Amino acid sequence: MCLFCDIVAGKIPAYTIYENDDILAFLDISQTTKGHTLVIPKKHYDSLLDCPTDEAIRLMTVISELSKTLVTSLEAKGINVLSNAGEIAGQTVSHLHFHLLPRYSKKDGFQTIFSETKHPDYLATLNQIKRDNP
């Protein structure tokens, strides 16, 4: 069984901030920023890539509401919502989860860096996506 399935089963304690029949949200033990929350489906899916769309919609509804609650109640200035899918993307627990990271300043413990690809072939990329997904 996975770490998050053990939390769902009550084998591992968690600081639960939201729960319904399908979804659980709890404070991340690492607390990258104050209020760092994980939102997971209670049913095991490895990542967003194998989660049914209807389940993803239910998750996103809860994520939207919890994000607003965290920003308001913790007086954050914004929030990052993040889910990694696959080891190459930085996923370390193979159970679908979203990180809600309330943001307080640019120096609050979380950083994202995007860098541009030099000379991307937009048309070839677009055609490949459309070819594989008519």
Automatic annotation (TrEMBL):
Motif (Histidine triad motif): 95-99
Active site, UniProt feature: H97 (tele-amp-histidine intermediate)
GO molecular function: catalytic activity
Positions of the HIT domain: 3-111
Pfam families, per the entry: HIT
Highest taxon listed in the record's lineage: Bacteria
The name this protein goes by in its record: Histidine triad domain protein
Species in which this protein is naturally found: Bulleidia extructa W1219
